[in-house]
Amino acid sequence: MADILNPENEGDLQSQIILPPDYPSAAPPIYQINAAWLRGPERAKLANSLEDLYVEHVGESILYLWVERIREFLVEKSQSSETVNQPEKVNMTSEEVDDDDDDEDIPDFRTLKLNTENAHLFMDPTNGEELPPIKHGNPITDRRSTFQPHLAPVVTPRQVKMVLEKLYENKKIASATHNIYAYRIYCEDKHSFLQDCEDDGETAAGGRLLHLLQILDVRNVMVVVSRWYGGILLGPDRFKHINNCARNILVEEGYTASSDAAAKNKRPKSKKTK
């Protein structure tokens, strides 16, 4: 675990890097970067630059190169803020009050790591993949907070990034307080899933969303839920709205049956009376 000082004094950047047994010959380091101010396009930009370094130095030790790249990123961010002579404002309206009693049956995905066996798939340098079609679901509004789901079929991590970049081109989506997402990709050759999630500042929301995708056993799909905070704390209801949004769009796009249909199929058949 490494703590790197953020020059904008908005908090520290915390990075956790795990070296798998076959590093560096056959697998890259497994990393996770945590910083409250690092979100959306900036997080994607940093992740892409780290992956580019791996591709350029396949088979070589890149740990120190990664650390230096993170430091350079922070310096560049600080200099760009000084140019406009105004520190960047971070939208931190996440509800920090979490109900621990609500989490008893929910796996903790907040420290989710990439599977070592499949980590190299995130470093695919190939281009030319088509942008998957993106569907937008119906919004849910509660106490001035609005939640809206977005869905796209994905079969590679590159497509996941393409979908995120496309969504962030929309000014309304880019301005959302949180853009929580999760995805599951089935690797047929390995008979395993490549999956990940992102809270985007809404603590534990990404893990809950991924848990929903696992329970529904959906595959090759990505779900993003945008939340625009309305100024009133919703408590655990916010997680209910996030998952309901996701479930609704998965049903609408045919990835899973509705709860009513599933319950109907599970009902035992009545015996005929003679």
Automatic annotation (TrEMBL):
Region called Disordered, residue ranges: 77-104
The entry's keywords: Cytoplasm, Repressor, Stress response, Translation regulation
Compartments reported by the entry: Cytoplasm
Biased composition regions of type Polar residues, renumbered to the chain: 77-94
GO BP field: GCN2-mediated signaling; regulation of translational initiation
Chain intervals with Acidic residues compositional bias: 95-104
Signal peptide: none
GO CC, alphabetical: cytoplasm
Domain RWD: 1-77
Superkingdom, natural source: Eukaryota
Assembly and binders: Interacts with GCN1; prevents the interaction of GCN1 with EIF2AK4/GCN2 and inhibits EIF2AK4/GCN2 kinase activity. Interaction with RPL39; this interaction occurs in a GCN1-independent manner. Associates with ribosomes; this interaction occurs in a GCN1-independent manner. Associates with actin; this interaction occurs in a GCN1-independent manner.
Family: Belongs to the IMPACT family.
Protein name stated in the entry: Impact RWD domain protein
Lineage of the species this protein comes from: Eukaryota, Metazoa, Chordata, Craniata, Vertebrata
